[in-house]
Amino acid sequence: MHLLDFEQSVAELEAKIEELRHLSVGGQVSIAGDVAKLQGKLDKQLKSLYAKLTPAQKVQVARHPDRPHTIEIIKNLIEDFVPLSGDRLFGDDQAIIGGLGRFRGTAVMVMGHERGHDTETRLKHNFGMAKPEGYRKAQRLMELAAKFNLPILSFVDTAGAFPGVDAEARGQAEAIAKGIEVCLQVAVPFVTTIIGEGGSGGAIAIAAADRVLMLEHAIYSVISPEGCASILWRSPTHASDAAEALRLTAQDLKELDVIDEIVPEPLGGAHRQKEETLARLADAIEKHLNDLVGTEPAKLIKNRQDKFLNMGQKSLAA
Fold this sequence. Notes:
Helix 6 (about 130-145) packs parallel to helix 8 (about 170-185) and helix 10 packs across helix 11 (about 240-245). By secondary structure, the chain is an alpha/beta fold. Strands 1, 2, 3, 4, 5, 6, 7 and 8 form an eight-stranded mixed β-sheet that branches. It contains 15 helices and eight strands. The longest helix has 19 residues, at about 30-50.
């Protein structure tokens, strides 16, 4: 497993546990007690580490390559998934994937950013950084969901929209703005989850939802800490200071009423126990969907729009 900088203190324990488990395969001597003892020490160290993560360390966890991705979420939580491709204008952007399926028996439209997990898939999905055709595909899926009265589930994991010249030439800013507009106007229940990194307009273009959830160690911000540091301090070496100032953690954003719920991650982060993470996420999504289903369409739209128009009032009052 890829270890983060601040996790080096647990590396030796994890290596010993893995070695003992390897030796026990086919062996005559039971070493379960030794493994359990070391596992207890490891859990204690992880609990201590993750209880006091700094915002900069949260950024590292949110970007961990082994965190659950949208493709994994769809595979594990969505039954009968039928992918839908293309924006019907230019092409198919693999940075955003989506389609029809069933979530715990309920027909839904699902979509989200996909970063990829190795060099080949990261290039295929452009590291989760969508171009205009990706956001226009998302708009098409949301409008289709509204047409057939299907709840929408979206999953956010992007450093931001793709900043290339070709994307700008095809109307990147307009595509993001239109995406937000469509989010705020679809007359169906809409639940989004920030599963890793939620960066700027690239995130909110598919995340202006009735309910906004965040995994415990995800981040959500108008700009990356590195980008903020390069603007304010003229140096990326101040990224840690920027992470602190941006209030980008789930805990900060819940306090500011930007998000609705923090979904707890297992000990040591979502990347260590994906199945448990996905089970907790599914329970949270189901709870919020049940709250929203049956609400009058006009009320859904008004409540959603008011939710975003009122953001920032709490911080301003303080």
